[in-house]
Write a structure and sequence with these properties.
Length: about 375
């Protein structure tokens, strides 16, 4: 089996950073009224800047595949060309369309010749699953290199016009034209952007990172859906997909907006996250002493202290000085977050040979968790 190394890392964050006061101007006001939920959510998540693929006039500047292409092309320097890529593996929560696949659309923009493509579906873990596909392909000797990506373009899913049809329908029913909190919650959390890794079977580059192992865990067998789009959650906890609703209802129910069951999230995301962390650490016989940098993808700083307390409670305490986060500066970029975090860490100059890095990515969609353990070479 071949060794696998992350030899280059890039990110692409579109346009200028958007601060908290500019968000509603960019995404639009719903029903002509400033959101009350916005202040509550921002106070808890402590995000101060995020990025949107929207210009000053409200026009879309990049779709998801274009964001991803921009990140990938930055990998192609110093003698490595985009035509040299042997495998392209792209994960996202927010593909531009149902079909063709996200990776196919990215490949279409790259125009770099024939190669294998892979499009893992899902939410935040899709970026890690993209990485794992490339990792296993190189490890098995099928290819010598691979590019994996995580990306999101959720701003277009969060613009006010996505919800206006529902608000107008509520008015017609003489109901309060107020969106449910589970629909508005994610409007103030998410950001656009893309990250890319070049994987190779040799430790090239200035700071190659050897992938020692990767693991994934799902709790869908015991927990119902928490974050979803393209459907509606019923009272019995089951999800009814958009394809089972009449077309004229899609807008009236904002079926294609991303939604979050906030109560279910709070009850389970940390407990299952630490449970899966312990499983991964036990399987590979590591302890907190074997971790120099801990990179947990968290959707909100609201969870930071609670995650630490849960890790401590379950007996795998990782000291604060090992944590590395950048959520406040870039926002929650979903499947791209872990790529962008690792890019910032490697660019910081802090890493030294032999350092061990643990990547920890949760996905609240139906509670999945992914891990990667890296060594600085």
């Amino acid at each position: 089996m071949k060794d696998v190394y992350i030899t280059r890392i890039t990110k692409f964050l579109p346009n200028k950073p958007i601060d908290n006061d500019q968000m509603e101007e960019k995404l639009g006001v719903i029903n002509g009224k400033t959101s009350k939920a916005r202040r509550i959510v921002l106070r808890n998540n402590k995000i101060t800047n995020r990025y949107y693929a929207i210009d000053d006039k409200g026009n879309v500047t990049h779709n998801n595949a274009q964001l991803t292409k921009e990140a990938i092309e930055q990998l192609c320097t110093n003698g490595f060309k985009k035509e040299d890529i042997e495998l392209l593996s792209c994960g996202t929560s927010s593909p531009d369309q149902i079909l063709p696949s996200h990776a196919a659309m990215v490949h279409g923009f790259l125009k770099n010749g024939n190669l294998e493509i892979n499009s893992p579906s899902g939410a935040c873990c899709s970026g890690m699953n993209a990485l794992k596909y490339g990792y296993l392909a190189i490890k098995a000797g099928q290819v010598n290199n691979a590019v994996s990506t995580g990306s999101e373009r959720t701003s277009s899913w969060m613009k006010s016009d996505v919800f206006e049809n529902e608000v107008e329908h509520l008015k017609e029913l003489e109901d309060q034209p107020i969106l449910a909190f589970n629909k508005e919650f994610l409007r103030w959390m998410l950001s656009d952007g893309a990250g890319a890794f070049l994987l190779e079977n040799k430790p090239n580059g200035s700071t190659p990172l050897k992938i020692e192992w990767m693991e994934g865990y799902s709790y869908a067998f015991e927990l119902e859906t928490c974050m979803y789009a393209g459907g509606d959650k019923l009272e019995d906890g089951n999800l009814k997909p958009w394809s089972e609703y009449p077309a004229d209802v899609w807008g009236k129910m904002s079926l294609f907006a991303m939604k979050q069951d906030v109560k279910l999230l709070g009850e389970n995301i940390l407990i299952k996250g630490v449970d899966s962390l312990k499983l991964a650490m036990k399987k590979h016989n590591i302890t907190p002493d074997d971790i120099d940098y801990y990179l947990p993808h968290i959707s909100s700083y609201y969870f930071k202290e609670n995650l630490y307390e849960e890790i401590k409670r379950q007996g795998v305490e990782i000291p604060w000085n090992k944590w590395f986060l950048n959520l406040d500066k870039v926002g929650n970029v979903g499947a791209a977050s872990i790529y962008i975090m690792l890019e910032e860490l490697t660019a910081s100059g802090k890493l030294k040979k032999g350092d061990k890095i643990l990547l920890h990515v949760p996905e609240s969609a139906r509670f999945s968790y992914s891990y990667a353990y890296l060594t600085v070479c």
